[in-house]
Specification:
Chain lengths: 110, 114
Amino acid sequence: KNEVEQSPQNLTAQEGEFITINCSYSVGISALHWLQQHPGGGIVSLFMLSSGKKKHGRLIATINIQEKHSSLHITASHPRDSAVYICAGNSGGSNYKLTFGKGTLLTVNP
Amino acid sequence: ETGVTQSPTHLIKTRGQQVTLRCSSQSGHNTVSWYQQALGQGPQFIFQYYREEENGRGNFPPRFSGLQFPNYSSELNVNALELDDSALYLCASSPSGAGNSPLHFGNGTRLTVT
């Protein structure tokens, strides 16, 4: 059983819709990463957060350490947001031994 | 600044062979982490190098080994390749080995073992 679970696995939206992707983890973590992976494999780091909320453009990430839950929100979604979104937790070691979720495939239709 | 670059982009090897994958870190970054991503799965941590020393390892056998050079570039070596080693191999660099900085990923090397 993966210690980091994402939902949904697949998500299809219309351009302009508000998107939420959820991440739950069963282990204690010191930081949680949200990553974006496009077809072909390249990964871009979107956020790293250990508490509260972070915002960058149309993207917002929140985390509740007590509830072991994080969400990634996309406002005013656009077809170029189509990608796989992955959350990954760092269990507190002094390195990047991250535990990854399986990813959420987001498709935004025009 | 240059980003993280990996080479080669694609590679086909035969079971039992050995392979070396390369990663050039982003300028100023002294930490490199390697991950294996099987098709349809999330990445899995292989190991991390900080200032030329391994400082963390995932659940991978010893035939997965690595090096980090004084310029902080890195290699991943896999001996005695198995079919299950077919995957996308990603490296990521960061300016700190403490696990508290965002990671910068390369585009990966897709390895196919036949």
